[in-house]
Amino acid sequence: MLRAARDHFWEAGYEGTSTYDLMHVMGLGKGSIYKAFGNKHDLYMRVFSGYCEDLVSQTEQALAASTTSPVRRLEEYLISLAHLFGSETPRRGCFLTSATTDLAAKDEAVAVQARRTFDGIAAALASTVRDAQAAEEIDPEADATELGYLLVSVIRGIDCMARAGVAESVLTSAVRTAIRMLPAAG
After folding, report:
1. What residue numbers bound the domain in which 85 lies?
2. Contact 139/185 with Cβ under 8 angstroms?
3. Model confidence pTM above 0.85
4. Per the domain annotation, does 51 fall within a domain?
5. How many domains does the chain have?
6. In a domain, 101, yes or no
7. CA atoms of 24 and 175, how far apart (whole Å)
8. pLDDT in 10s for each residue of the chain, 186 residues
9. Tell me, what DSSP letter sits at residue 88?
């Protein structure tokens, strides 16, 4: 039920989702939804927060799972996202991006959750940057945290470009260019 609600919010947006839509996709009556999940905003925050927690965890796992060099792990992870975003039909991109662009400017709870998620993803990327610094692939004087946020920006950018129909090959090329621009060691 929560996945169905999340997917509807993701496709139609918060404003484009009515209580009747939620009743239909969740297979529950209005009273049951309110009793179990609170109001529409409470339900939205529940599914958005769950998605965000999963996203941070998936990022951490993906970066830790590879046995290749740290820079290669970063590149493989970002290319996997370029592939995911570039091959989607319909092009819905990432729920985090959707929620942030739709609601963060006017809904503080969404903004706080989005910032927390960006921080978590940036921390996972920064940890891999630190691994690359230890492996003498990235300049040890570079600020790993700043590079983590730079890579978050690359991810959000390829998500937005993919939604506009930019070819997957262009997204992959942008990722490879971003990785080459990381400050090399010595």
Report:
1. 45-180
2. yes
3. yes
4. yes
5. 1
6. yes
7. 40
8. 899 999 999 999 999 999 999 999 998 888 888 888 989 999 999 999 999 999 999 999 999 987 789 999 999 999 999 999 998 777 888 999 999 999 999 999 999 999 999 999 999 999 999 999 999 999 999 999 999 999 999 999 999 999 999 999 999 999 999 999 999 987
9. -
